[in-house]
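Researcher: Can you fold this with calcium ion in place?
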Amino acid sequence: MKTHKYKHGLTLVEMLIVVGVIALLTTMVIGIAARIDNQSKERCLECTCALLEFALQEYCECTGKFPEQPEKDFTNAPLHSEYLCRELHLMPESREVLGKLADSLVKNEYGTVDTPSEIYDPWGTVLDYRYVPGDNFPELISAGPDKIFGTADDISSR
Ligand SMILES: [Ca+2]
């Protein structure tokens, strides 16, 4: 007579397959979440740059020129950002536009000499401000997701 012996539970191979599938799905979800996070930060940066360009235009209408760049060596982004903030705060029109930036992107909004204001990108790196030779409209540059200037993922306001 034939007896049916039922197994209960999973074999080791089945357990390994289940763990592997869960690990694969987790990796996919994390990758998709990171991509969505980066895309939302890029949109935030676009809005920030648009606001800053508007503030720069307001500043230019009041003073007849854009804020100068204090250093021409393109290596000191915090100094450029501090100077840009200080200059934009001087004119009421540009200060008003600057006030529309998200609080999380502005460090020391009412900066002093000891704790100057700086504008950050959504990844937490200070935004650089520079002039491109041959173009008199200043350029805003984010170091991008890797937080390092001069790499392929840098994002320009151009
Ligand atoms: Ca970069």
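Model: Folded with calcium ion in place. Helices lie at 12-63, 77-90, 92-98.
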